[in-house]
Amino acid sequence: MLPPCGQPSHRPLATWQHGGVTAATHSSLFPQVPESADAVLDGLDPEQREVATALHGPVCVLAGAGTGKTRAITHRIAYGVRAGILQPTSVLAVTFTNRAAGEMRGRLRQLGAGGVQARTFHSAALRQLQYFWPKAVGGDLPRLLERKVQLVAEAAARCRIRLDRNELRDVTSEIEWSKVTQTVPADYPAVVAKIQRDAPRDPAEISQIYAMYEQLKRDRSVIDFEDVLLLTVAILQDRHDIADHVRRQYQHFVVDEYQDVSPLQQRLLDLWLGDRDTLCVVGDAGQTIYSFTGATPDHLLNFRTRHPNATVVKLVRDYRSTPQVVHLANGLLGQARGRAAEHRLALVSQREPGPEPVYTEYADEPAEAEGTARRIRDLIAAGVPAGEIAVLYRVNSQSEVYEQALADAGVPYQLRGAERFFERAEVREAGVALRGAARAGGNDSLLDDAEGLPAEVRAVLSTKGWSPEPPAGSGAVRDRWESLAALVRLAEDFERAKPGATLSDLVAELDERAAAQHAPTVQGVTLASLHSAKGLEWDAVFLVGLTEGMMPITYAKTDEQIEEERRLLYVGVTRARFHLALSWSLSRSPGGRAGRRPSRFLNGLRPGSVPLGTRGTAGGGGIERGPGPVAKRGRRGPARCRVCGKTLTDAGEMKLMRCDDCPSDMDEALYERLRDWRAVRAKEIGQPAYCVFTDKTLMAIAEAVPGSAGELAGISGVGARKLDRFGTAVLAICAGETVEDELADHVDEV
Fold first, then answer.
1. Which strands, in side-by-side order, build the sheet including 59-63?
2. pLDDT digits (tens, 9 = 90+) for 547-558
3. Of 105, 195, 467, 723, which one has the fewest beta carbons inside 10 Å?
4. How confident is residue 619, by pLDDT bands cut at 50, 70 and 90?
5. CA 591 from chain center: how many Å?
6. What 8-state DSSP symbol labels residue 518?
């Protein structure tokens, strides 16, 4: 017999007390659907169980990192549906990324609660806008503008305001912020002055560009991403009949990551709700890291004020990270200031002890990247899968030196933010092949010798590039193999979970996963910015570049901005399950002045340091000193453009020793000869071309035309290992000599 709605079930908690609770993302890929509503509650800890059974009235879940918040809210929805209290089609769960929405749909399906709508705010609004536009406005919905930056550039040009590439990006972001905070062009200067917002240009100029941008959109009958929310809000405000229609459809709302809600999203949520309070919100003020987009934790922090009768549940049992990682995370927020800090959640690790976080100081950025790559290679050799390792940095421009270092170390990697798994060309091709084989059944000769589902999948995908052993190195060939290998592993898991499953069953599973964007795991070290790592987790995390000016970032000036940077580092720390490494370098380039200092956020936390404001000297005992660069380089000052003399900061520009905008004196013919040689060399050693030299390094060589090993070694991207391996051939090509004989002589050495 089911318990009364909103009351906990009296089934015993033995499954939780005996370790049945698992980390949020470590559930089985294909669990058995619970037999009953009460079975949905099995394995939840007491606080998660309280969330799952609180089905009436407003509910606020304050959930720390790794505490199983997605588990709690999906089990809440599933319990309500399976108990007959909630109708699946009457529930709308909203979150902030397609990946998170896809994961939620996948979990709900596994819990027997299919039919529940789990979408992003924009996806839900766009669906409603498309449906109601003909009735509310008439005609077809204007075309959605995929990228607004070109139109912003045109608007600036029409206003006779010149923007460089970085200014264009910043002004575009400022327009987005204005729209989600419901600031119109005419009000923009006054609003930024009132809140003391640091505008990227003269506010009057931004207001002018913003107004022209809106005019161009109207002239061309297009709308942008933010307009989807604005127009939906406008229709629901103006047309009470349409608002009533939506409210009849959706009776119950769940909002994940509520600390990231913008004023515009909150306005839309209020219109969806009407005068009802059937709302459950989940968030953590300590993970507010998107204020630059208009997000604010105020809605989460003020929830009890708006809803005095709300049920509030705190989740602090951390199932993700070891006590050592949790101790560091709690220490970071323990030094925080401001309103969000007053509501910090002190996590309590539920895992066995692990290794202490490792702090390492390096001489320069290349040394830091090379040291990180060596540590990663050692972890992989010790049995940590590459897909369970991540390198996280503050800004995307930091990735290049780590891409190079990992490629040099022969470690596969993937950049976070690449195209979705099911949109990759090789995955689409594999889907077509599997679907064809499923239709052909016993008539497909490929399957003649294949016994069992995994063997059938391997046989089909072997025609698309899959092999039992991965290709050497990394790059496009390895990326393709990793995608196909992920499908093979998925088939193996599927067959274990559903013995006797057919190829047709697997194809149906893949179709459902594609619709939900519920991708299998691809093996490869993840390179990602701290912002894009939100919501993810790995066994081993390397937090790199932790220096003043980068963490906190140099343009974080106010107390609020500094505290958000601290929270960003907290998010990075809490991504790690077991291994955590934190590092910084004393200079940007080899031989540069060692003037950098480790991030202030580590004061009092890293061994030998003291908190800010305390007498003493930071640094010293307990910190590893990383080895210097692999290549022997002479001392030199800051990198400067050899054309205009400007100090260089971008990694790609430093490699070329000139600004991107400065004229190149590259020997085009030499560059093409180097590319041809590289292609042959890469094929011979069985590695992607960029593992020999990247395009930027070849360009730098073709511009410098080195005449000696010393000159070649001075080019960024040519370390001692590559100098020894490829130097003779490169110098010969630069001298106009042929290298076919030399290449043939060395093929057998590899």
1. 117-120, 91-95, 252-255, 279-283, 59-63, 311-315
2. 998 899 887 878
3. 195
4. very low
5. 33
6. -
Q: Which helix (H) or strand (E) holds 701?
A: helix 695-704
End-to-end alpha carbon distance in the chain: 70
Q: Is the pLDDT of residue 640 over 70?
A: no
Crossing angle of helices 121-136 and 225-238, rounded to 10°: 50
200 Cβ contact list (under 8 Å, min separation 6): 167, 170, 171, 173, 174, 206
Structure-token match 């009436």, residue found: 56
CA distances from 489 to 281, 293, 373, 485 (A): 35, 38, 26, 6
Question: Residue 214 — very low, low, confident or very high, per pLDDT cuts 50/70/90?
Answer: very high
Residue identified by tokens 């749909």 is 105
Alpha carbons 284 and 574: distance in angstroms, whole number: 13
Q: What CA–CA distance (Å, rounded) separates 55 from 44?
A: 16
How far apart are alpha carbons 524 and 470 in whole angstroms?
A: 12
3-state SS of 208-263 is HHHHHHHHHHHHHCEECHHHHHHHHHHHHHHCHHHHHHHHHHCCEEEECCHHHCCH
Under a CB-based contact definition with an 8 Å cutoff, are residues 715 and 722 in contact? no
pTM equals: 0.67
Number of residues written out for the chain: 750
Residue with tokens 């077509």: 432
Measured over the CA atoms of residue 489, residue 523, residue 104 and residue 313, the dihedral's sign is positive
Q: What is the mean pLDDT of the chain?
A: 81
**Does residue 52 contact residue 76 with C-beta atoms inside 8 Å?**
yes
- Give residue-wise pLDDT tens across range 647-693: 555 555 665 666 666 666 677 788 888 988 888 888 887 777 777 88
CB within 8 A of 8, min separation 6: which ones? 49, 50, 53
> CA–CA distance from 652 to each of 317, 404, 660 (Å)?
44, 11, 8
